[in-house]
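Appendix B, example 12.
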Amino acid sequence: MWEEFGKAFCLMLIMEGIMPFLYPDRWRKLVATLATISDRDLRVMGLVSMLIGLGVLLFLTN
């Protein structure tokens, strides 16, 4: 189990690093825009993202 968790973590780091590597200016603007969004809206976006990820994961593992 820990090996799969480690692989998933490494894949997450790769995915998170693509935008700042390829488009640093756009990424900087995105981060500045995110700083202006309310906490509630960020939480909703995070929840939706987690639910989509969970749904895709369940779809791919069945």
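The chain is about 90% helix and 0% strand. Residues 21 and 36 are 23 Å apart (CA to CA).
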